[in-house]
Design a protein that fits this description.
binds nicotinamide-adenine-dinucleotide; 14% strand; globular; Rossmann fold; binds magnesium ion; four-stranded mixed beta sheet; seven-stranded parallel beta sheet; alpha/beta
Length: 404
């Protein structure tokens, strides 16, 4: 029995993870669920999976959950412990009786728990790409030190993980990693129409159903940019050996090109239960609930180059990876502020890359002692905070300029 802790259980990845676990009561038990606030969803999950502990980041929601548990569960021994204190919540990722931590909180909010899991040598099923983008060097060296295994569940990285040779370091055997991208909802939209893009349109992804932040990231293609950086850390590859290929059908999830001209690809329906089941079962293969792939019915698969003019966020991410140091963290934090402002109607779609570039320039120009490569996760979080302040101040400058 693998004992699982799911950080971000009420989100899109959390729900898909539980949908796979549900099929295998003989293999997995859910020890811990952690979420921000959606008590109704959490209550249903608690009733079904009977975790021992539940972490709720919002203390008001945590109180409400405790009350509802007392009302609905007469037997106190069946009520999970509800934890809301920030440090204790993070420590749930490092507990002795947890084998596998699913890191599926969205954004930098997931960094501390991912770090706790890696530092404790857990098997970490990583969806939270932002924690690798912000703190890749620290995460990878901690994993080496503690023996933590990081198995990617981001579909592209999971595909690459499946295609890589087991016994050779990727940098030696592999010529290139090729990440596929659906191109998002605006792949064919003319540049002139980008100014009018609404949050609703940006969140309507053609192939995948996901949380709002990553949906906007897919629409700007920053998601692919963050994934390029994620791949660089996971597989130890430089930017020059990571390509992006637009593939609108989202059937080929990524490819690995070898020195002899061979290219291996992983295919499947665009359904996150497949990479999640692969990671949960690894090294075994287990059922995910996803149907077989019928290539005769699909017929044609298309591929094209990404358009960096209409999707400058992808360029910004490549530049950040090549620059190194604090640049990826800066782009990631500025992107989170930009996406939140776009979803709130405070920033236009075209202003997302503008805000990221201006924040980056401000931060890198001031690259003094305060902005050196962080030496600890505390440094990363402090720097992330500073970048957010710069980005927030920059929004006022961008939107307050009165059309000049
Ligand atoms: P989502 O918005 O659907 O869910 C986010 C989850 O994080 C929720 O359970 C929420 O309660 C929790 N959360 C947010 N802030 C928190 C906090 N401060 N403390 C504790 N919990 C908090 O997001 P999602 O689409 O499931 O994405 C989650 C992560 O997985 C992201 O990093 C995303 O990039 C990555 N990812 C998602 C997909 C996908 O198909 N959805 C695919 C690949 C990677
Ligand atoms: Mg992905």
């Amino acid at each position: 029995m693998k004992k699982i802790a799911i950080f971000g259980s009420t989100g899109s990845i959390g729900a898909s993870t539980l949908a796979v676990i549900e099929r295998h009561p003989d293999r997995f038990t859910v020890e811990t669920l952690v979420a921000h606030a959606r008590i109704d969803v959490l209550l249903t999950q608690i009733r079904q999976f009977r975790p021992r502990q539940v972490g709720v980041a919002d203390p008001v929601a945590a109180d409400s959950l405790r009350r509802q548990l007392v009302q609905t569960e007469p037997d106190p021994s069946l009520r999970p412990e509800v934890i809301d204190e920030a440090r204790a919540l993070v420590e749930l990722a490092a507990q002795d009786d947890v084998d596998v931590v699913v890191a599926a909180i969205v954004g930098t909010a997931g960094l501390a728990s991912t770090w706790a899991a890696v530092s404790a040598g857990k098997q970490v099923l990583l969806a939270n790409k932002e924690s690798l983008v912000a703190a890749g060097a620290l995460m990878m060296s901690a994993a080496e030190r503690t023996g933590a295994t990081i198995i990617p569940i981001d579909s592209e990285h999971n595909a690459i993980f499946q295609c890589l040779p087991v016994d050779t370091a990727p940098t030696k055997a592999v010529d290139k990693l090729i990440l596929t991208a659906s191109g998002g909802p605006f792949r064919t939209l003319p540049a002139a129409a980008f100014a009018e893009i609404t949050p609703e349109a940006a969140c309507r992804h053609p192939n995948w159903s996901m949380g709002r932040k990553i949906s906007v990231d897919s629409a700007t293609m920053m998601n692919k940019g963050l994934e390029v950086i994620e791949a660089a850390w996971l597989f130890g590859m430089p930017a020059a050996r990571i390509d992006v290929l637009v593939h609108p059908e989202s059937i080929v999830h990524s490819l690995v090109q070898f020195a002899d001209g061979s290219v291996l690809a992983q295919m499947g329906h665009p359904d996150m239960r497949t990479p999640i089941a692969h990671a949960l079962g690894w090294p075994d293969r287990i059922a995910s609930g996803v149907g077989n792939l019928d290539l005769r019915a699909i017929g044609t698969l298309c591929f094209e180059a990404p358009d960096l003019d209409r999707f400058p966020c992808l360029r910004l991410a490549y530049e950040a990876l090549e620059h190194g140091g604090v640049a990826p963290l800066t782009v990631n934090a500025a992107n989170e502020i930009a996406v939140a402002a776009f979803l709130d109607g405070r920033l236009s779609f075209l202003q997302i890359p503008e805000l990221i570039a201006r924040t980056r320039d401000t931060v890198l120009e001031a690259a003094d002692a305060d902005y050196t490569q962080p030496a600890s996760i505390a440094d990363v979080l402090a720097l992330d905070d500073r970048v957010r302040s710069v980005a927030t101040a920059t929004i006022a400058r961008i939107t307050g300029r009165g059309g000049r």
